[in-house]
Amino acid sequence: MSSTDLGRREFLAAGVTGLSVTAAYGADALGVTERFDEQRVTAIVPWAQGGGTDRSMRITTPAWSDRLGIEFVVENYPGGSTQVGGEELYNADPDGTTVAMWNMPQMQATWLFQNAPYQMESFDYLGTHHWDPTMWFAPPDRPYDDLEEFVEYARENGATVGITSAIGNTALSALLVAETYDLDLTIVNMEGGSGVRQAVLAGDVDAGVNQPWAFNPDYVGDVLALGSHTAEPQDLWPDTPSFADLGLEDVPLVEEGLGQWKLVVVPGGLRENHPDRFERLAETYSAVFDDESFLTEAGNQGGLDEILEYRGPDETAAEVEATSQFMETYADVVENFIYDE
Amino acid sequence: MFGLLAPAAIDGALGILASPYVLFAILLGTAVGIVFGAIPGFSATMTIILFTPVTIPFEPTTALIFLVSAYGGAVYGGSIPAILINTPGAPGSIVTCWDGYELTKQGRAIYALAVSAIVSGLAGLIAATVLLIFAPPISEFALNFGNPEMFLLAVFALTIIPAAKGSSLSKALLAGAFGLLIGTVGNDPQLAQPRATFGQTALLEGVDFVVVLIGLFVLAEVFWLAYRGTVVTGDHTVQRGVSEVYDAARAVASRPAAFLRGALIGTFIGALPGAGADVANFVSYNEAKRWANDELADRFGSGIIEGVIAADSSNNATQGSALIPTLTLGIPGSGATAALLGAIALHGLNPGPALFDSSGDIVYAMILSLFVGNALILVYGLAGSRYFGKFAYIPIRYIIPSVAVLAVVGGFAVRNAPVDLYIVLLFGLLGVVLVVYDYPLVSLVLGVILGDIAESGFVTGWLLTGESAAAFLFNSYIAIGLLVLIALSLVVTAIKN
């Protein structure tokens, strides 16, 4: 045997490898790969681990998995103000094995202001998860008790306002208040909910915009809750007036309520190409909201159970469209902020 | 906002710790952390992220204690490959390479590993004590560390660049500036608009410094190892005896001030939101050098044990103190504590001011488990140093392929982005070129790590202080203190050069 000839072991190893590869590709070509039920579902979270979206997804998937009979694997794709995770979902096959928990209006902002390659129509929508209204907070030593008094203060003195991201609901709320009352606000992106919380607790800002659940209801009483960008008060921070209660109806989106939705999204085409899988995912997802263990877990997450708000696929798609429309309506407000800055 | 020690909760915590399951969780968690921390690219953050889903079926106390133990083990574990193969397992161990690997090249890997285990374990115990007793006042102090202060801290750490390992000042500064430039890739921190991403979505989040680290240190070292053909250099012989471990104990015992300085710097920096072991070990090393006499200061980087003590006493001390803002305010002090924060919430606890009241026994059990975990680092580290130490001297035909594979796996695992594999390769080749032309690699990495902290701190702080230089620079007594330190550091550098 020459030195280049294969020995018996090498021949066997090469043969086994070759056969394995051939079998895998051959099976795929013949359509005898694993069935949907035998695969795992990848659950994309477009934020880092530990944030509100990540926690929401991770407490949802166990109960969902029980009903679906398929295991979920949560994968975090942070970056690009959710665009990195958004593109991961956009590029996934619409075969029912990939879902994502996204939040809006952050989702819309990625294609409106960041030139993401996808649009609203690029996805199908399984259902909403919860709605956390936009709320204004302030350090406890400030000379105002609610947003109406803050507006007067800011008119006289100017003010710094911390927001959680450059192009989400907190930015829009701050920009709409500033524009409505012609205020000289210095709006500062604190890069996340914990950044806003820290700035408010340390007194680095005159006000911070966040959501009540994201801010953490344990702080009720430690900071001033100036008002929520809604027509009706919300439950998590009792005694906090809504913008309507304070007579601030001139601010856009008070009647509709400006807040952050968390929703479950799948690659576009799933509903059309695999209606059975879409229905099965949607039905089992909806059943999660009746699951006792899920509700208990949500209750343990700082009162998440109080803001859960499930809506089915069609209602969710309508909500996505409505949010897209108002984001487009106020796109110039956001763009002026970004490009002027 | 919250009270000091709560005896009833501590009593409950001790009861929890007495459970054999919990003790097993600490034993296993620490061991798992050491192993994963020792794999290049698998930092403490990634170890926690990887194991959080595994802990979901377990009862919250056991699960969280397992994760806290893995966190401590991983920070220590990062130093093992730093000493053995000049490859930091995690960003918090970059500085450990400087003297640790030099000792390995002199045949004294076991000695360096044993010192690393001793100072890591003891520093962890000190930080755990601080967390147990002083968490509330320290968390309030950490809140005063705002954006201007974070910027000034980053600038202070950047002044270490000229001091880095004896290269010329101009080359060190040039490499550092290039690192800062790399740090600007990605969405800008204020307005989320992309910079230098070349259409790559994965780069919107910037170039991850762990990926740069793997390329510059791990892959470049693989190339160098292949070129040199051996780990040990010169006429040195490999020391294998247990006497190396005794020497290590004596070395630490005879340098209590050096150890305490590192541990306290680590404890302080770890408690700050946004800064962790990666910043602490640079600052600690720089301070150790600054406090040394001229003769000793010149020998830093040549394989002296003071360098290992400075690096490893500071990085492990960050673990306990990083938990302070995490547990008391729900504000993570580092990437690892951000991951831990998610795990804590996932297990039904709500980090924040009410946590000590609502789940005091569990929280104190986590804190007390740090004492057991750090004692275990001592045990595992000392017992294992003789065995770990042999790895550095196995034939390089085994070392090179295994480390190269780990570099690729670690680079990809950071965020599952294929583009990171090209970045690892690019920086691996760049690392070789930089070493050939005597540019210090660490200056580049320091630029990448600190660029993000400095930019974010500057832009946000500048806006919050009304775009006034005076208001920004003199924002607080802390800011003024940092300005003084920066000035001192620059003056010393100017005089020495």
From TrEMBL, chain A:
It comes from the Archaea. This is Extra-cytoplasmic solute receptor. It comes from Natronococcus jeotgali DSM 18795.
